[in-house]
Amino acid sequence: MPISLICHFGQFGWLSPEEKQAIRDAATRIRSFGPDEDLVSLGDHPTDCKLILSGYACAYKLLFDGRRQILSFQIPGDICDLPAFFLGRMDHAIGTLTSGNVAIIPHEVLLDLTQIYPRIARALSHSILVDAATAREWMVRLGRRTAYERTAHLLCELWLRLDAVGLTQGDNFKLPVTQARLADALGLTPVHVNRILKQLRESGLITLHGGTVKINDWDGLRNAGEFTPDYLYPGQNSRLQRPRSRVVPQPEPRGVRQEA
């Protein structure tokens, strides 16, 4: 069931029961995926969109020598190859980070949804504009923030995005991503990411255990990353407005798992 997409669109305005049911009806064809698969490749001309129902993926580009830059993380509720719906071709790839499921929505079905239900069309447009705003924020993060600031900023962003679609538990969220993949997103080396995560733990800002992140001090983590959620454009129905400070003593944690 595409509950995450309904929650995602719900950030941008009210949806009627009929509109929610139309989204459910459009997302009935399900495909499973494993880790390290390409859902869509660079240069593809897909005829359908892939809505992530469970699991994590990323948008990325490869350099000629094989180095990878992750452009964004894709979470449940994201239509990961939406640009091709408008532009007809993918200028980047979508790769999976974990196992999970996607709903396959043919382009003609999505087009019908936008023509029949104007609020869905507006939510889709809003989502695309937020993606563009997020890409600008990632550019600033990579271009001007320190390694410590980048990492803190990304963790704040991920919690807020996951919380908006109901995928957090209090101040905890799943981060089943290797340090090598975090490095690909942050423009750092895995060794540097390991060192920064250790600093964040020792500062009491976060706890890491078994692929789960717990934010212990919201104000401290926000200040460390100079983070504000403005670029995510939280709507009236969104929970993105409510990051709060909680300082809870924690035992010394284990780190994020290393990539084999």
What is the CATH architecture descriptor of the largest domain?
Sandwich
Number of strands: 11
Order of helices and strands: HHEEEEEHEEHHHEEHHEEH
Reading off the top of the CATH hierarchy, the class of the largest domain is best stated as Mainly Beta
> Which consecutive residue ranges, at least 5 long each, have pLDDT under 50?
236-260
- The percentage of residues in β strands lies in 15-25%
- As laid out across the biggest beta sheet, the strand order is 2-6-4-5
Rg over C-alpha atoms, rounded to the nearest angstrom: 18 Å
- Distance from N terminus to C terminus (CA atoms, Å) equals 33 Å
Average of per-residue pLDDT values: 90
Number of helical elements: 9
Shape from CA axes?
Answer: globular
Helix/sheet category? alpha+beta
| CATH topology type of the largest domain | Jelly Rolls
Task: Profile the largest sheet.
Answer: 4 strands, antiparallel
Keywords:
20% strand; Jelly Rolls; Env_Response_Regulators; Crp/Fnr family transcriptional regulator; 260 residues; four-stranded antiparallel sheet; disordered C terminus; cNMP-bd_dom; 11 strands; Arc Repressor Mutant, subunit A; 2 domains; globular; alpha+beta
Summarize the structure.
The chain is α+β, with helices and mostly antiparallel strands and 260 residues long. The chain has helices at 3-10, 17-26, 83-87, 107-116, 118-144, 147-164, 179-186, 190-202, 218-225, and strands at residues 29-33, 38-40, 48-54, 57-62, 68-74, 93-96, 100-106, 168-169, 172-174, 206-209, 212-215. The model is unreliable at 236-260 (pLDDT under 50).
